[in-house]
Amino acid sequence: MSKRDRILTALEALDPQYLDVLDESHMHSRGQETHYKAVIVSPVFAGLNAVKRHQKVYASLGELMGQVHALALHTYTPEEWAAQGAAPDSPTCRGGSKLDH
User: Fold this and answer.
1) Which domain holds residue 32?
2) Is the pTM of this model over 0.90?
3) What 8-state DSSP symbol labels residue 46?
4) What is the Cα gyration radius of the chain?
5) Among 67, 76, 74, 70, which residue's Cα sits nearest to residue 89?
6) Exposure letters 65-91 (e unless 16+ CB within 10 A, then b)
7) CATH classification of the domain holding 36
8) Which pLDDT tens digit goes with each residue over 27-59?
9) What is the number of structural domains in the chain?
């Protein structure tokens, strides 16, 4: 099972109405499975600020977080998602990988 699939499985604990995890490693670390973007729409985020939402995500991922260098989180309630409809694009990598020489 790929790391992306393990992340998806772990995030199912948040009872998402919409869930997408993109492996963006190709943009950063030459395919090392270290950079991800997660878009999560769940009613469990209602009434929570961004920090509390991210803490719920980290708790769901548990030990997987130690295997991820970067995780861009886009967390929405169903109402927020209905109003917005899409997560922003990830920024272009600015370098800085330990693999760069």
Assistant:
1) 3-84
2) no
3) T
4) 14
5) 74
6) eeebeebeebbbbeeebeeeeebeebe
7) 3.30.300.90
8) 655 557 778 899 999 999 999 999 999 999 999
9) 1
